[in-house]
């Protein structure tokens, strides 16, 4: 990285699970660098969804390095997720025809309910010791399939954890880390966010900032996707021997299936 920027730059890993992100600085200048970032980073930057993209360079080995303006600010806290501008930015993302067109051009396959169910079935076939709850969850997803099969498709971030939301010193909000984004029902993002961060009594108000009414259909779709996500995570952690996390997700799945959350 230093060779790419010049000897006057200092580059250090930025952390994270992929090890592909870096922080670079030279004097008062500071950049966020990433190797092989999302191919639609330019569109995200142009729409003000992520910090401004400054340049892109392709290395001899084919890797692509992107440099973004460094954000002087902080990650959102869990308690910040009820902010109106969080709802507004997520609505802007879901409504973006430019993002959707970009996904279609790069051949992104929408994450449909049928694909989700087939993926879950495949994971369950690899583990014949899973608890009966997992089969009950799958039966629910199959029984409620008609509620979600004809839903609208938009670009979803798919990892709306509060750590992926950043606000700068000028109170400008960004949603970063787009590596897992795909085309899906907006209820996927909405369900994960509302179930995790917003009390049920405040869903209607939060969704007003988003620009959507809290209908029974939306409630059922959000519950479907949150249940599918919980089952997938429980299976994932079981398969890797992460017993504590698997138990936590299994407990959450139980509350979803039996209607206590």
Describe the structure.
The structure is a single chain. The chain is of the alpha+beta class and 261 residues long. It has two domains: 69 residues, Phosphorylase Kinase, domain 1 (2-Layer Sandwich), CATH 3.30.200; 180 residues, Alpha-Beta Complex (Aminoglycoside 3'-phosphotransferase, Chain: A, domain 2). Helices cover 46% and strands 17% of the residues. Strands 1-2-3-5-4 form a five-stranded antiparallel β-sheet. Strands 6-8-9 form a three-stranded antiparallel β-sheet, with helices on one face. The longest helix has 24 residues. The chain is globular, with a radius of gyration of 20 Å. It starts with a helix and ends with a helix. 30% of the residues are buried. Pfam families: APH (PF01636).
């Amino acid at each position: 990285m230093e060779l790419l920027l010049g000897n006057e730059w200092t580059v250090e890993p930025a952390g994270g699970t992929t090890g592909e992100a870096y922080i670079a600085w030279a004097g008062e200048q500071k950049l966020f660098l990433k190797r092989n970032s999302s191919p639609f980073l330019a569109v995200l930057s142009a729409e003000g969804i992520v910090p401004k993209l400054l340049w892109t360079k392709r290395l001899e080995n084919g890797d692509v390095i992107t440099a973004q303006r460094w954000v002087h600010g902080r990650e959102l806290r869990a308690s910040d997720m009820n902010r109106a501008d969080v709802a507004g930015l997520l609505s802007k993302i879901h409504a973006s025809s430019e993002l959707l067109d970009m996904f279609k051009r790069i051949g992104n396959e929408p994450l449909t309910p049928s694909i989700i169910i087939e993926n879950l079935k495949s994971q369950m076939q690899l583990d014949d010791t899973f608890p009966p709850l997992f089969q009950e969850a799958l039966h629910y997803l199959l029984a409620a399939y008609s509620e979600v099969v004809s839903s609208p498709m938009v670009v979803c971030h798919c990892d709306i954890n509060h750590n992926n939301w950043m606000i700068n010193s000028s109170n400008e909000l960004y949603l970063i880390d787009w590596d897992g984004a795909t085309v899906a029902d907006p209820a996927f993002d909405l369900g994960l966010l509302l179930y995790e961060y917003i009390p049920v009594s405040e869903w209607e108000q939060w969704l007003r900032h988003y620009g959507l009414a809290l209908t029974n259909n939306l409630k059922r779709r959000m519950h479907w996707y949150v249940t599918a996500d919980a089952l997938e995570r429980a299976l994932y952690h079981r398969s890797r021997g992460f017993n504590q996390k698997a138990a936590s997700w299994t407990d959450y799945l139980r509350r979803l299936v039996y209607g206590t959350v």
